[in-house]
Here is the input.
Amino acid sequence: MTPTVTELLLARAEDRSTGLLFEDRRWTWAEHVRACAGYAATLTGTLRPGGHFGLLADNVPEFSFLLGGAALSGHVLVGLNPTRRGAALARDIALADCELVFAEEKYLPLLSEAGVPVLPLSELEPAREAVVPVAAKPEDLLMLIFTSGTSGDPKAVRCTHGKIAYPGEMLATRFGLSTEDTVYVSMPMFHSNAIMAGWSVGLAAGAGIALRRRFSASGFLPDVRRFGATYANYVGKPLSYVLTTPTRDDDADNPLKLVYGNEGAEADLAAFGTRFGCHVVDAFGSTEGGVNFGRDATTPPGSLGRLLDGVAVLHPETGKPCPPVEFGEGGKLLNAAEAVGELVNTGGPGFFAGYYGDPEAEAERMRDGMYHTGDLAYLDADGYCYFAGRLGDWLRVDGENLGTAPIERALLRHPAVSEAAVFGVPDPRVGDQVLAALVCRTPIDPHEFAAFVAAQGDLGPKQWPRFVRVLDTLPRTATHKVLKRELAADGTHDALELRYPRI
Here is the structure.
């Protein structure tokens, strides 16, 4: 039976083990639950029953207390993104039907157009009186989490008690976590990774939850040692940022046993585990939760793992299952047009509980009773799945559909390239031309780089970037996803045109 966050909290009401760690402060689980109950009473006296409130804050203790308070009182916490500004942030607040917003003082200037009352978080006090916890059900709404907004305005994903509690309990059980462990949470708590792969895991296990106000690559290992962290959650790019910090002979001398997350680069997963003496488990998933699966010990390099029952790769035009990919010399995809399709949960919505206030986007996700991820993938002959990019990233070059992810993976093999984002720019005649935005460790020579690309056996000539733009950084969301639409808006401006050998 799927638990609720309320049940998981109440199970810790008398637990004297460490429940929350932040900087130099500590709370037992019993103290944490009492604080949540106090905030629940405050919410009950401030909002209408079931009302929504926004929270604009870093990973501070009040975030945990208010989320727990919402679970006990039946209210809904709306995680607000501090990289949003002005009318955009006001749009998120209005879409989520927030009655008011709690904010850290440093973020108050961002809320001049909020349109609802704004209260400094420092002035929020937990009530002294006890609150009678609601009898929550797994399908009850607990939180609204906005998507990254890489392809347009962020959507508010409905996160129910079950959607948050189930992965926490599942992962805590899968990894054997207990009150002897400490879960390190440095990813932003307004996003799903921190809540479902971090906070809820610690709650379900009864482990201590160590909060880092904001992610810091240089602060990662010192924090792990200071808090005694045995488990940490991540998204891909921060994992690579940690690896760029100077190496030391004692890097593996730390308590970390397991790191779990998604979107990790293949090379980073192995390098991180070796350097820090831990096991790295990378999975596929999204805030929506419609499709989730992960790697295991048998997963070949580059693969996301095997699909779960009911999940298939369907051709976006015919809606039929795609055949396995055929590999040529050097790993080149010989039948990409037929083998690359969209990842679809044919059995239903999975843990997708819908978008709040956006029925059109919800209908686009759920078509014919099936959940459509919008992610492109292909399967090998053994059933292992490989990511090929986003459906919106699909390039049309000389009449052929191409995914961007295989091109990006190949470009990252060049020793000078640390980051790569591939997207399409309009071809003067028809379709797209391939442009690659790169962040480089050292300068690249266009002639040498073109020769390198042409030498990659798994790339065909239509996949070779026609243009390359070298940048200091790639534009990213607060959750570290590349904003390709911003890159594409510049077209070929400041881009180098590559010259390839005739074939």
